[in-house]
C-alpha cells in the first residue's frame, strides 16, 4: 500500500517538475521576493487538488481524464477544458522535445541528436504501457529531487544564506493561485488515467500529502536561493546555472543530465495524458499513439522554451483559476452533486 502510494506520488511530482520548474525559471516567473506565504498556500492548494483529482478518478475507475474532468467542471464546460488540456499537453510536450534538442546543443551535439534521443526514449518507455513510466519515475525522480536539494542546501550553507530573512514580507501571496492553477490541467490528464489502477484511499492520502509537502519544501528552498542572486538572474535563461557557476564543472554536467530527465518526465506525462484520451476513441496501443504524436510534434519544436514559460504559462494559469476553485471547493459541493447523480 505504501509502495503504491509512493508510486503515484512520484507520478505527480514527475508531471509537475518539468524543465521549467527544475531550471528555476517557472518558480522565478511566479514567486521571487515576498513569496513565503504564497509557497505555503501553494502547498495546501496543491495537496487538496491532488487529493480531489485522485479521489474522483478512483471513484470513477477512469482510464482517461474525461470522466474526471466532467465531474470537476461540469458537463457544460467539459468540451472547452477537454480542448484546453489537449492543447496544453501538446504544446508543453513540443517544447520539452525542443528542450532536449537544446540540451544536446549545450554539450556540442547536433540539435537533432537531442530530439532523436528523447523520441526513442519516449516510444520505448510506452512499450510497457503506463508501467514503464511508473518504473522510470521511481528511479529517476529520487535522483532528480536529491540532486536538486543537495545543490540548493550546499549553496545556502556555502553562501551563509538566511532563508527566513524575508519572512515578514509577504505581499506576493496571491501568486499561489495562478501557480497552482498552472499545474492543474496536466495533473487532471495524468491522474485521470490511473483511476482504475488505484486500490485504496490510503494510496491517495500518501500521494497527495507526500507530493504537496515535497514540492512545497523544495519550492521554498529554491526560491529563497534565487532571491539571494536576483541581480544575476537576468544574465541566465536557466536560473539554476547562476547557482551552479559556484561549483565544479562536473556538478554542472550532473545537474544538466538531471534537467534532461526532468524534460523527459514532463514529455512522458504529456504523451500519457494525450494518448490515454485518444485511446478512448481509437483502440490503438499506447506506444503506437506515442510514435504518431511525436512525429506530428517534431516539426513544431522550433517554438522556443522561454516564450512558452513567459507568455503561455501565465495565460493558462489565469484560465485554470476556475478549475482550481472547483477543486478547492469540491469537498463542499461534490458530495451533494454525487448524490443527485
Helices and strands in order:
Elements: H1 2-16, H2 19-22, H3 25-30, H4 36-60, H5 66-73, H6 75-106, H7 111-125, H8 130-158, H9 176-182, H10 184-191, H11 201-228, H12 240-244, H13 249-279, H14 286-297, H15 305-319, H16 321-340
Helix pairs in contact: 1-8, 1-10, 1-11, 1-13, 4-5, 4-9, 4-10, 4-11, 4-16, 5-6, 6-7, 6-13, 7-13, 7-14, 8-11, 8-13, 9-15, 9-16, 13-14
Protein name: Membrane protein YkvI
Transmembrane segments: 38-58, 79-98, 110-127, 139-157, 177-194, 206-229, 249-274, 286-305, 311-329
Keywords: Membrane, Transmembrane, Transmembrane helix
- Please, how many helices? 16
* SSE order: HHHHHHHHHHHHHHHH
Quickly count the domains. 1
Shape: globular
Kindly report the average pLDDT value. 84
The counted number of beta strands is: 0
CATH architecture: Orthogonal Bundle
Q: Could you name the ranges where pLDDT drops below 50 across 5 or more consecutive residues?
A: none
What is the C-alpha radius of gyration, as a whole number of Å? 19 Å
CATH homology superfamily: Hydantoin permease
CATH first level:
Mainly Alpha
**CA distance, first residue to last residue:** 30 Å
Instruction: Write the CATH fold name.
Output: Hydantoin permease
Strand content: under 5%
Largest beta sheet, briefly?
A: none
Amino acid at each position: 500500500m505504501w509502495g503504491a502510494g509512493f508510486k503515484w506520488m512520484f507520478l505527480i511530482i514527475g508531471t509537475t517538475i518539468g524543465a521549467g520548474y527544475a531550471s528555476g525559471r517557472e518558480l522565478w516567473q511566479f514567486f521571487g521576493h515576498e513569496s513565503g506565504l504564497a509557497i505555503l498556500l501553494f502547498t495546501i492548494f496543491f495537496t487538496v487538488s491532488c487529493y480531489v483529482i485522485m479521489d474522483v478518478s478512483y471513484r470513477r475507475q477512469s482510464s482517461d481524464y474525461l470522466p474526471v474532468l466532467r465531474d470537476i467542471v461540469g458537463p457544460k464546460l467539459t468540451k472547452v477544458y477537454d480542448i484546453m488540456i489537449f492543447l496544453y499537453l501538446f504544446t508543453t510536450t513540443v517544447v520539452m522535445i525542443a528542450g532536449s534538442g537544446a540540451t544536446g546543443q549545450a554539450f556540442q551535439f547536433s540539435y537533432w541528436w537531442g530530439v532523436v534521443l528523447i523520441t526513442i526514449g519516449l516510444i520505448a518507455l510506452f512499450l510497457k504501457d503506463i508501467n514503464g513510466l511508473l518504473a522510470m519515475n521511481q528511479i529517476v525522480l529520487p535522483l532528480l529531487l536529491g540532486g536538486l536539494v543537495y545543490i540548493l542546501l550546499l549553496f545556502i550553507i556555502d553562501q551563509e544564506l538566511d532563508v527566513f530573512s524575508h519572512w515578514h514580507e509577504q505581499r506576493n501571496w496571491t501568486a499561489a493561485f495562478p501557480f497552482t492553477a498552472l499545474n492543474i490541467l496536466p495533473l487532471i490528464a495524468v491522474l485521470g488515467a490511473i483511476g482504475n489502477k488505484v486500490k485504496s484511499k490510503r494510496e491517495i492520502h500518501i500521494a497527495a500529502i507526500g507530493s504537496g509537502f515535497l514540492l512545497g519544501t523544495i519550492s521554498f528552498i529554491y526560491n529563497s536561493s534565487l532571491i539571494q542572486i536576483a541581480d544575476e538572474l537576468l544574465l541566465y535563461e536557466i536560473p539554476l546555472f547562476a547557482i551552479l557557476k559556484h561549483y565544479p564543472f562536473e556538478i554542472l554536467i550532473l545537474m544538466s543530465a538531471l534537467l534532461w530527465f526532468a524534460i523527459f518526465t514532463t514529455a512522458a506525462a504529456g504523451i500519457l495524458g494525450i494518448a490515454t484520451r485518444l485511446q478512448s476513441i481509437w483502440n490503438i496501443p499506447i506506444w503506437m499513439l506515442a510514435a504518431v504524436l511525436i512525429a506530428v510534434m517534431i516539426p513544431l519544436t522550433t517554438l522556443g522554451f522561454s516564450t512558452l514559460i513567459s507568455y503561455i504559462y501565465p495565460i493558462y494559469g489565469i484560465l485554470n483559476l476556475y478549475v482550481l476553485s472547483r477543486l478547492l471547493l469540491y469537498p463542499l459541493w461534490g458530495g451533494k452533486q454525487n448524490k443527485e447523480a
